[in-house]
Amino acid sequence: MFPGTLLDGRYRVLRKLDHGGEGEIFVAFDELNRCEVAVKSQFPRTFESTATYASCALPLEREIERLTFMRQVPGIPKVLGDGHYGRHQGRYIVMELVRGETIASWISNHHPVPADAAVSAVAQLCEILHGVHKEGYVHRDVSAKNVMLEPTGKIRLLDVGISEYIGEINSDLRGTPPYAPPEQYEKGTLLTPHVDVFSLGTMLFAMIGSELPYSGLESPPDATTPAFPNGFRADMPEALRSLALAMVSIDPNKRPPLAELQNYLRPMLPALGSPASPKATRPDPTAPYRLGLSLP
Questions:
Q1: Fold of the domain built from segment(s) 101-291
Q2: Residue 137: exposed, middle, or buried by beta-carbon count in 10 A (0-12, 13-18, 19+)?
Q3: Taking burial as the number of CB atoms within 10 A of a residue's CB, which of 12, 31, 224, 273 is the most buried?
């Protein structure tokens, strides 16, 4: 796909935005609604057979299905259309364009992130994941690169491509280290919302801590392995540290359920009408709570 390509008679490709393991992402202009959109496309065909190239579109087909089921979940980008492009009929999805920066970039620019900002970002993700779980899915890829922070301070959760039904037996061992919990890499385990709770706990440590849970181990962790074998070294409020450690427990049943996690986080959030901290980041995820903006 190249700049200038017209998709479905209305989406004019403007520029390449990014790429991942399963496709490329472009910014396009919707000539009907006069706005910019995001287009995720299958990689161009090279030397694959027709059958092999068609099979390479299956991850995008899966993502279209997931996005369609989650179209009512606030905080998940809306799917606007899909189709095929080019002489080899590559697959593409048209989605709402989310503006802002990834949490990975935000962490890099502001590390260590102030505790109130970290709590606010994770609390917003809890709201989004509540909707995902309510639709019957486990996201399975909540990571810093898959979360966007908009200029308003609102959080958006991207990439539902490897999500699975709650209660499914795990057969897909993909995930983003170190955000994916150990059970995500084991065949035959039961997929539950506790998978996403582990990812949120890891994100808290990524924002505030100096290292990530279970990093630097020479073998896979088990139930007796401490999250930080050499001790945790960071300025993190004790209540938040204890909560984050519970969230990254190896045993999924020892992680707090999402609703319970939200209850723990609520007293740590900035109060409505409170002023921005002098150390507030830009964008500032505390803003929706301080200013009473709708969430997510």
A1: Transferase(Phosphotransferase); domain 1 (1.10.510)
A2: buried
A3: 12
Point out which residues pair with 84 in neighbouring strands: 91
How far apart are alpha carbons 290 and 109 in whole angstroms?
22
Q: What is d(CA 180, CA 142) in angstroms, rounded to the nearest whole number?
A: 8
CATH class of 6-96: alpha beta
> Is the Cβ–Cβ distance between 154 and 293 less than 8 Å?
yes
246 touches 262 (CB < 8 A): no
What pLDDT score was predicted for residue 81?
93
Q: Does position 44 have pLDDT exceeding 70, yes or no?
A: yes
Q: Which of 118, 103, 77 is nearest to 201 (CA)?
A: 118
Each domain of the chain, given as residue ranges in start order, spans: 6-96, 101-291
| Tokens describing residue 93 | 């999805």
* pLDDT digits 0-9 by tens, 228-271: 988 888 889 999 999 999 999 999 999 999 999 999 999 999 99
Assess contact for 182 and 220: CB atoms under 8 A: yes
